[in-house]
Each structure stands twice: as C-alpha cells, then as structure tokens.
C-alpha cells in the first residue's frame, strides 16, 4: 500500500478520534455545568429553609410558645449550619452563650437516667439561666426578623 495513503488514513483516523473525544468532553462539561447550577440552587433553597426555621423559632420564643433554652439551642445549631464560617456569630452570641451555660444539662432521653430530685435541680438552674438571658435572647429574636443574612 502506498505510504501517502497510509499517512492520510492515519491522519483521518486521528482527526476522527479527536472530534469524537471533543464531543464527549463537551457533553461532560455541559453536564457538570448543569449539576453546578442545580447544586447552587439547592444550596440557596437550603439556606432559605434554614433561615425560615430560625425566624420561626425566634417568633415562637417571642410568643412564649417555645422554651428559651430549647429555642436558643435550636437556633444555635441552625446558625452553625447556615453560617459555617461564623460570619454572623458575634451578632447572635447570646444563643451560643446560653448553649454553653446549659450544655451540661441532660436533654431528651438523657433525662430518663436521672432521678426526679436531680432533674429538679437542673430545671431550677435552667430557669435561673433563662431569667438571666431572657432580655438579651428576646432582643436577638427580634433582631433575627430584620437581619440581613448575607451569606
């Protein structure tokens, strides 16, 4: 066979492979771009859901429908998820302070391990802490409804 024909066929084959791989790469790139759009949309929706939950908890505390300690713990946890870089932590430090002041206390199922007398001691301590923090917690709850969470 003529060497020129072999070289031409090799070039045509190489160009065909390049075209096929380019098409494949373009499709993969398009899929990745779409996934990134979907993911960023999901992140925006997740943040909106977290913010809505934080606002609902704050309003329930202001309406005395939610215990201050329970609401503060929930808000603290949601703020940690909403703002992992802790950009807004200083603006809502009171939730973190109340969390720290009560984190040694038994919660939920852990309360089953204690006697009624022990629980009474913890509950009395918690109520004193709530009185101490109440004004600052309520101020922070009111602040949440108008706060610009630029995350």
How would you describe what is shown here?
With 151 residues, this protein is mainly alpha-helical. It has one domain. The chain has 4 helices and no strands. α1 packs antiparallel against α2 and α2 crosses α3. The N and C termini lie far apart (68 Å).
Task: Considering the chains and any ligands shown, give keywords for the structure.
4 helices; mainly alpha
**Got a strand count?**
0
> Distance between the terminal alpha carbons, to the nearest Å?
68 Å
Q: What low-confidence regions span 5 or more consecutive residues with pLDDT below 50?
A: none
What is the string of helix and strand elements? HHHH
Q: Approximately how much beta-strand content do the residues carry?
A: under 5%
Rounded to an integer in angstroms, the radius of gyration calculated over CA atoms is: 29 Å
Q: How many discrete domains?
A: 1
- Count of alpha and pi helical runs: 4
Approximate shape: elongated
- What's the helical proportion of residues? over 70%
Q: Tell me the major beta sheet.
A: none
Task: Work out the oligomeric state of the chains in this entry.
Answer: single chain
Q: Which secondary-structure class do the elements indicate?
A: mainly alpha
Average of pLDDT: 88
Brief rundown of the structure:
By secondary structure, the protein is mostly helical.
SSE diagram, text form:
Elements: H1 3-62, H2 68-82, H3 93-102, H4 116-146
């Amino acid at each position: 066979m003529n060497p020129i024909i072999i070289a031409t066929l090799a070039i045509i084959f190489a160009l065909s492979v390049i075209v096929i791989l380019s098409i494949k790469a373009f499709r993969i790139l398009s899929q990745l771009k779409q996934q990134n759009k979907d993911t960023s949309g999901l992140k925006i929706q997740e943040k909106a859901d977290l913010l809505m939950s934080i606002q609902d908890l704050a309003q329930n505390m202001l309406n005395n429908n939610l215990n201050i300690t329970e609401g503060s713990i929930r808000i603290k946890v949601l703020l940690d998820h909403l703002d992992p870089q802790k950009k807004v932590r200083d603006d809502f430090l009171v939730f973190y302070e109340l969390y720290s002041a009560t984190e040694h206390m038994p919660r939920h199922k852990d309360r089953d391990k204690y006697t009624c007398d022990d629980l009474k001691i913890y509950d009395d301590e918690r109520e004193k802490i709530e009185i101490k923090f109440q004004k600052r917690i309520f101020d922070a709850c009111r602040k949440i409804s108008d706060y610009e969470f630029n995350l």
